[in-house]
Amino acid sequence: MENTTDTYAEILLETPIFTGWKKEYLTAFLNQSRYYIRSYKADSLIMIQGSECSYLSLLTEGKVNALLMNDEGKQVIIEDMQAPRAIAPAALFATESRYPVYIQSVTECKIFYIDKAQFEELMHKEEVIMKNFIRLLSDKSIFLSKKINTFALQTLKERLVSYLKNNVEERITQQELANRLGVTRPSLSRVLSELINEGTLSVENRKIFINDKNKRQ
């Protein structure tokens, strides 16, 4: 029967940072490292924007959102994250090592925290871990560039239609959709009405159809 550390190693090997590494190496690393695991209920605020980032945070179970929020409570969902994922990896070694977003659980979830200094030491020793981390940061940079392009260069109508096409199976409320698009609910309702009147969208049994390709939301 495997011990607890072996079990943790198997779980972490599924994350993008440790993929491709040998289980026995990861088990040995964990045996001499400072780490802890926390479980969170759905709708828990896990990380606060601006708080210090002193651990590598790995989502091993569940789903979380990365979001921005102002003092009035307006939210913009930047990213949906499903396990296994690293959470805000770019913040770990930034000049100001602080979380750039809020992290909120969507479902019950577990997060594995590894000491920052020990992870940095590991990267210096293991090329595969360093390459995985660099690749992760590069992918994140490209993702954010596309996100900025969407917000800066597309109209709300274009963003809405694009979102519906790319998320045909998702079931969310109008407020959640507004949060993902970075607009108020009244603005979203107005654009939805315009697209329905134009014939681009239609609604049946509270489901939205994209008429040009008969796709559904």
Describe this structure in words.
- The protein is of the alpha+beta class and 217 residues long.
- The chain has 2 domains: 4-152, Jelly Rolls, CATH 2.60.120; 155-216, Arc Repressor Mutant, subunit A, CATH 1.10.10.10.
- The chain has 7 helices and 11 strands.
- The chain has helices spanning 4-12, 23-31, 116-125, 127-153, 156-166, 174-181, 185-198; strands at 35-40, 45-47, 55-61, 63-69, 75-82, 85-87, 102-105, 109-115, 201-204, 207-210, 215-216.
- It has a 4-stranded antiparallel beta sheet with strand order 1-8-3-6. A 4-stranded antiparallel beta sheet has the order 2-7-4-5.
- A hairpin with a 2-residue loop joins strand 9 and strand 10.
- Helix 3 (116-125) crosses helix 4 (127-153).
- It is elongated.
- It starts with a helix and ends with a strand.
